[in-house]
Write a structure and sequence with these properties.
Length: 287
């Protein structure tokens, strides 16, 4: 009877004999990740509440710079998301002078790389790539300070965890997945997205990419494996469209330029052209 009520397919059943997919535990894992994303969420108002010397424009500039640095080292995407989460959570609990903001960014990248990467560059290499005149010792001091403030909790469920889950319900379609990754990365630059959870940003990114690829139906499988229905995504989708529609500024073009490369399917060009050609459709998605 329960099976008859269920309108989604059990896509984990096919992985029963694949030990890498841990299908036996996958539901428990994602319940845990959904709980964990609540405890690793930064304060969306931390500039007003904790860091009045900083501005949201400074944060955008810092994130853009970290994205460039991350790309130069060819780090995995998990490292990028963890770096930004470390920065935001640290600035939520500790006031930082604006002059020290790049140092916080470098220390956060160094921590994230040690947590996620197999081969980690030295602090000296990171400082050199960043054209930064701080000393390694200063980075270590900030690193210790960050880890103490965060109580060494680096177990952050990034949007990528949730993208892997939703992609299962989207048949792992490659272009749509890359387009979703572009939207997810674009969200890092806009502080308004601090109001949303990684799972929600991921679902909204997949929702918007499917609309752009003329596959607008949010199927029962997508609803189940993302954990969100369409109404719960509207605000976030609207914000993604606004971020995409705003004219790119010289000082925060890293995501647009990166995803305009052939290796990423030129998805940022595709998305911006779609927006120009489908103004009415896009306006319907705004709330």
């Amino acid at each position: 009877e329960k099976a008859r009520e269920q309108d989604w397919d059990d896509l984990d059943a096919e992985d029963e004999f694949d030990p890498i997919m841990v299908s036996e535990y996958v539901n428990d894992i994602f319940v845990y990740l959904r709980e964990k994303e609540l405890t690793t969420k930064p304060d969306p108002e931390y500039i007003d509440n904790m860091n009045q010397e900083l501005s949201w424009k400074m944060r955008t500039s810092l994130v853009d710079w970290i994205i460039q640095l991350h790309y130069a080292f060819k780090f995995c995407l998990e490292t990028l998301y963890l770096t930004i989460n470390i920065v935001d959570r640290f600035l939520s609990v500790r006031p930082v002078p604006s002059a020290h903001l790049p140092l916080v960014g470098i220390a956060a990248l160094f921590i994230a790389a040690k947590y996620e990467e197999i081969i980690v560059p030295s602090v000296e290499q990171i400082l050199k790539a960043a054209n930064n005149c701080n000393t390694p010792e200063e980075v270590f001091i900030v690193e210790r300070c960050i880890l103490r403030e965060l109580e060494f909790d680096l177990n952050y469920p990034s949007p990528l965890n949730f993208l892997r889950r939703i992609s299962k319900a989207d048949d792992y379609e490659m272009f749509g997945r890359t387009l979703s990754k572009f939207f997810m990365e674009l969200s890092l630059l806009n502080n308004e997205f601090l109001n949303y959870l990684p799972s929600q940003i991921t679902a909204a990114s997949m929702y918007l990419s499917r609309i752009m690829l003329d596959r607008p139906e949010w199927t029962p499988n997508l609803r189940h494996y993302s954990g969100y229905n369409e109404d719960e995504l509207r605000e976030c989708v609207s914000l993604l469209i606004q971020s995409l529609a705003s004219p790119p500024k010289k000082w925060c073009r890293s995501v647009l330029d990166k995803y305009a490369l052939p290796k990423f399917g030129k998805v940022s060009l595709f998305a911006r052209q779609w927006l120009k050609r489908n103004i009415e459709k896009a306006e319907d998605l705004l709330v």
